[in-house]
Backbone:
């Protein structure tokens, strides 16, 4: 084998997945068809849950140093308020994809990830023991292949995975340019008879211009030019504001498609290779990174022999519904952005509803992904949700939950001293069967109640089993007897049977 896992695509999804696999002990090779980084800015930010997963790995400070926290977000251009009680990072972070890729690549290299440029996937053959990935005139062999190679994924096509969905109904152009005649700091979703435009300042002297024109659908392979962007802005704004010096021009639409399956044998899909949609609310890059964090620890456990191959089936069962929900809300945002008097009225009504706290909370949860909950076989309020980053006290000192996840290992957190419960040795006895695989930490919580988006406050648990991706696999309430068989079942389900079983 040339690697345990070959990843096609060195974008944010592929790089994050590579890092997660290395933390799990897997040998990883990333192959990228491009010759080098293009420097194109592309996506422009990260939401709360993505910031949290970077914090779980101890690398968030690298991104915060160059990113710009924003006080508000938006749903189809309508301002959305955030709640500082829901996360340590209750804001979108404005940071360009080019910077995100640079920082993730630096981390990947630190972890020993191999990256091969000018390596385009041209063939895929899988068998019982592995997969052969053809790269032009040569081939590499791995146990698994993950396609993180974008919306036109070669891996998805070569694996014959269907990509159903809805076609484009509009065309949007995006470019990083200078606008010397713009007399405003920024323009936010200014609507016209045929679409809308925005001009957002990313750095002094240059802007990201976005034009959206409905019922104008560009050909899939039609070239994108600076002149097209200039003419589109003139149609919508009546002027091009002296547009000049383009750094990057691209096009997108409201086409929405999702892979019918995220796994077919030894081939898996993540990021844009698994789902494309209207980039409303900036959810695409975030969903891809979160795909990677969900898949990484599972695939790493399988290739290193710590878990059965069946664990990989939970990647599709957990992430495919998340993708469906994002496609659903972005279709809604695209419809809400259409020009016309009827939509103008709808936006007025919808905007007034967004002033209601519960409506704001529901929409906020969609965009931030803080309310994603997986089915894990437990009815505890925390089960399946991302674990709140609470402050804890251990014998070694004060620590946060996220700090305990830096190594990307399963965490069994015993908080029963805080719940005034007895029988502490039971948890240690159970954990002994998974010694070396699961980290047992005894601690007390600084708070008796933990804040959970959608639920507000819930009582602090007595025992908590947390997956490496930060989602709770199982939890025990402080006012109930410890269900030892249920804890054993959860450990075996997610982290493989105990060696002596």
Residues:
């Amino acid at each position: 084998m040339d690697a345990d896992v070959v990843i096609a695509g060195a974008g944010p999804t592929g790089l994050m997945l590579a890092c997660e696999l290395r933390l799990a002990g897997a040998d990883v090779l990333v192959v990228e068809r491009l010759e080098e980084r293009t420097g194109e800015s592309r996506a422009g930010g990260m939401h709360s849950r993505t910031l949290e997963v970077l914090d779980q790995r101890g690398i968030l400070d690298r991104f915060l140093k160059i990113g710009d926290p924003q006080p508000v977000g938006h749903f189809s251009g309508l301002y959305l308020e955030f709640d500082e009680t829901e996360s340590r990072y209750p804001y979108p972070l404005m940071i360009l994809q080019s910077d995100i890729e640079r920082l993730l690549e630096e981390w990947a290299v630190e972890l020993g990830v191999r990256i091969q440029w000018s390596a385009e996937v041209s063939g895929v053959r899988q068998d019982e023991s592995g997969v052969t990935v053809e790269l032009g005139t040569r081939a590499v062999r791995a146990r698994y292949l993950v396609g993180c190679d974008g919306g036109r994924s070669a891996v998805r096509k070569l694996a014959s995975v269907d990509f159903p969905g809805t076609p484009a109904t509009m065309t949007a152009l995006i470019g990083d340019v200078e606008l010397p005649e713009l007399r405003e700091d920024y323009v936010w979703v200014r609507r016209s008879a045929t679409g809308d435009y925005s001009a957002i300042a990313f750095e002094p002297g240059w802007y990201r211009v976005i034009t959206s024109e409905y019922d104008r659908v560009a050909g899939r392979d039609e070239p994108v030019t600076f002149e097209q962007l200039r003419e589109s802005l003139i149609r919508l704004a009546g002027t091009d504001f002296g547009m000049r010096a383009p750094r990057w021009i691209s096009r997108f639409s409201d086409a929405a498609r999702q892979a019918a399956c995220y796994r077919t044998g030894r081939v898996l899909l993540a990021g844009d290779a698994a789902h494309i949609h209207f980039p409303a609310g900036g959810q695409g890059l975030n969903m891809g990174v979160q795909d990677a964090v969900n898949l990484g620890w599972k695939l790493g456990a399988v290739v290193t022999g710590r878990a059965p191959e069946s664990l990989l089936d939970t990647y599709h069962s957990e992430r495919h519904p998340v993708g469906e929900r994002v496609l659903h809300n972005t279709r809604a945002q695209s419809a809400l952005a259409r020009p016309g008097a009827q939509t103008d009225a709808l936006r007025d009504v919808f905007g007034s509803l967004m002033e209601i706290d519960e409506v704001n909370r529901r929409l906020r949860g969609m965009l931030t992904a803080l309310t994603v909950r997986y089915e894990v076989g437990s009815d505890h309020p925390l089960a399946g949700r991302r674990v709140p980053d609470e402050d804890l006290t251990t014998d070694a000192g004060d620590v946060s939950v996220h700090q305990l996840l830096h190594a990307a290992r399963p965490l069994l957190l015993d908080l029963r001293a805080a719940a005034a419960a007895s029988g502490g040795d039971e948890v240690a006895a159970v954990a002994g069967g998974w010694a070396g695989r699961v980290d047992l930490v005894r601690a007390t919580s600084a708070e008796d109640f933990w804040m959970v988006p959608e639920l507000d406050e819930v009582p602090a648990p007595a025992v908590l089993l947390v997956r490496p991706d930060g989602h709770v696999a199982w939890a025990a309430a402080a006012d109930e007897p410890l269900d030892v068989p249920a804890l054993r079942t959860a450990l075996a389900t997610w982290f493989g049977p105990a060696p002596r079983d």
Remarks:
- Residues 418-423 have pLDDT under 50 and may be disordered.
- The longest strand covers residues 138-147.
- The chain has three domains: 3-165+257-368, 170-253, 391-495.
